[in-house]
Amino acid sequence: MIHHITDEPAGAPTPTAGKFPLGRIVATPGAIAAVPNDELQTALSRHHHGDWGDLCEHDRLENERSLLDGCRLMSVYHTKAGVKFYIITENDGSATTCLLPDEY
Q1: Contact 56, 72 (CB under 8 A)
Q2: Which residue, of 10, 62, 86, 92, is most buried by count of CB atoms within 10 Å of its CB?
């Protein structure tokens, strides 16, 4: 089950417009349980503005190419407590999902 965080339509303007549309933002139960909301919101903002977190250089370059090609975007972050989590935006910008690695 994925829990709904926002119901913004794909491409809807956001208060702090980023590099690409986030679409509908959802999170898995594991991410909701393990990632404090303030840290999740900060990570979403970073992702939206092209700060891909703890990705290797190769994957960072893939994301930069994906911005031009309209492909899926992925970021990796860690909470202050050390919990690793992903944020993935679909290639069409319709949805962004926050999840733990074992939920991928």
Answers
A1: no
A2: 86
Whole-angstrom distance, CA of residue 88 vs CA of residue 17: 17
SS (H, E, C) 1-63: CCEECCCCCCCCCCCCCCCCCCCEEEECHHHHHHCCHHHHHHHHHHHHCCCCECCCHHHHHHH
pTM above 0.90?
Answer: no
Residue 44: both structure tokens together: 């979403």
What is the CA 65 to chain-centroid distance, rounded? 17
What is the band of 52 on the pLDDT scale with cuts at 50, 70, 90? very high
99 to 17, 30, 83, 88: CA distances (angstroms): 23, 7, 11, 8
